[in-house]
Amino acid sequence: MEITMLYYLIPSLIMFCCGVYGFITRRNMIAILISLELMLNSVDINFAVFNRFLFPGELEGMFFTLFAIGIAAAETALAIAIIINVFRVSEKIDVSDVTKMKF
Amino acid sequence: MEPVIPIIILALPLTMFLVLGLFGHKMKHPVAGVLGTAGMGVTMVLAYITAFTYFFSGNPEFIDADTHTRLQAIVFNVDWLAFTDSLVIRLGFLLDPISALLLVVITTISFMVHLYSNGYMRDHHGVWETGFQRFYAFLSLFSFSMLGLVVATNIFQMYIFWELVGASSYLLIGFYYTKPSAVSASKKAFIVTRFADLGFLLGILVLSFYTGTFNFTDFTSTEVAEGVYRVSEGTAEGIRAMIQNSAAPMFMGASVLTWALVLIFMGGMGKSAMMPLHIWLPDAMEGPTPVSALIHAATMVVAGVYLVARLFPLYLMEEASLNIIVVVGALTALYAAMVACTQIDIKRVLAFSTISQIAFMMVSLGVARPEFHHGLGYMAGMFHLFTHAMFKALLFLCAGALIHAIGSNDYTAMHGLRKHMPITHITFLIGCLAIAGIIPFAGFFSKDEILTATLGHSTLWYVWMSLVAGLTAFYMFRLYYLIFWWKEHKVPAGHHAPHDQPWTMTLPLVILAVVSCLAGFVPFGNLVTWNGEEMFESVSFITNLKALDWTVASVSLAVAVVAILLATVMYKKENPLPSKMKNALPALWRWCHHRFYWDELYMFITHKIIFGCISKPIAWFDRHIVDGTMDGIAYVVQRSSYAIRTLQSGNIQKYVWVYLIGALLLGAVTAVCLM
Q1: Which stretches in chain A have pLDDT values below 70?
Q2: Cα–Cα distance between B191 and B183 in angstroms, integer?
Q3: Which of B244, B275, B273, B270 is nearest to B258 (CA)?
Q4: In CATH, what number does A27-94 get?
Q5: pTM of the predicted protein model
Q6: pLDDT band for position B665 (50/70/90)?
Q7: Quick check: bond before B276 cis, omega within 30?
Q8: Minimum-distance CB partner of B656 among A23, A96, A99
Q9: Strand, helix or coil at A8?
């Protein structure tokens, strides 16, 4: 059985949809962050797969994936820092409770 | 004449106003009082010098040597507002018989009142009235405005100062501004006179539009009256066009000149409290009594008379306007005299008496015709203005002394004061005799001249005015007996036993009483006549006595004596006669006591008709239609923004939902389209 692009893309799509679902439905900020990471990672898989299958011998997609992983790590660190600070102030990490900066 | 003294006459009271108004509160009370009084004293001396120079110096500037005619002399006249070449408003100083006369009257009365107020404006323990310095500042402002009014060289200057006296009258009536009645009285006086001044302004505009001039000398030079028109060409044309009805524009059946004069007279009616614009004067008695003496008896209220006298040659051209003046004056005189018989507040009795006496002057001017005794009525009106100012100021200052001693305006609180206040008693009696017209007091001569002039015009008005003169004597002596006779109260109504006043209050009373005794002998016919001609060949102390028409004089004397006797019978002792009379004619008494319901009528017209039928609908329209439109727009915008606001919740998850659904829809649509 030959392993085609589809075998990679379907799990990636499922991952992405899980990410979207989690992002919309979760109230916990950490959970939202995890969902965000899921979406990013599914996109990274797509990059790698398309590069591997469509443009073998070139490395742009791989580099893009590496960049995305790096930026996602930085972003996660930033988001965690914000969440910790929010927690320190309000003792909550539930998005519906963090309304102090609204209006 | 050098303009130095006239300038000081005007500048000194103004300076006093500024000094006392700006720095008065830092001065000690006596300093402010003495400063104000001294300033007015100097002004008075300068005014005397000016008047004396005008009347007796024989200067060819003031009197024509050949015809013995007194001239109108413009001492100075500066361009104040030069709008265009032809429309220039000037401020100046006009000397002629009536302005010189008024200079003397105003400064004399004003000085007396300044002096008197030093004593009046403090209580028995010597505690000064609050706002004492402010009081003196306002008195100075009033004196300045009134002097500026009488020396005006043009009708516009007169209008400016006319409004200034109105404003200072407002300030002084409302001097006790913590008392609601004083506040509403001052508002009433201001609004009523402002309403009348609307007519005055319209009259000025009509007159100056058609004649092309504001100057009194153009309007009133004798040449205008005699049809010679020595005045400048444009003015002459204008006046000629106004007189000759065929060439003049007509409006509602009367010539524009008549309209202009009647409108100007309306201003005079407001200031001089002629019916139906008299309602403010009785209420104006809320002010301090010296103010009533100065403004509401002697000077400001005769401004209307002065205005008519000032424009007399013009009025002479329109018989109709003079007849209106006579009718208004005669009705007012009788009305005010009747009301005065039933009032309880002594100041109100005096106020109605003032209205009645001013109406006498108006009638006198209205019946004056050059063909009758050289315009006797004009001279008589001015004479009465002079004598009335003296004795009415005296009566008011006496009333002030009584009120000061008793602490009430109500004569029922007084009774039997003649033993306690002998000086006030004697001076008040002299004032009463003068106003009643008993020989040889001042009022006799002037009133007699007025009655003679009225008889020369029409018998009806003569009988009418004689009746009013009798009523005058009656109500004044009623007041006199009620205050000074009757049995005195066991317990004084005031805080202590009444007594005479300090010298600052007594001295003006004595001076004015002496003047009231002697003023009748001033040979007025040689000083103040409508065209400046002298009436008598030679003058001596008894000129006026010799000139009397003894039939008229004896009749008026008899009327006055009978009226006084009647008052003596009815009011010397407490007796049932007055209440019997009151019960015999209850309706008449009630109407008089309620001043013929004029105030109620005005209340009805203003509140029910104007406020109710006009103002309220307008207010409703403004509140509901105009405001409603604006409110409606604001409401719609506000509601819709509230509705939209929930879309921007700040909740990212919701945004993602929307984004997702939108993206899916877009995808679906694209897919359908591509297929």
Answers
A1: 102-103
A2: 12
A3: B244
A4: 1.10.287.3510
A5: 0.79
A6: very high
A7: yes
A8: A23
A9: helix
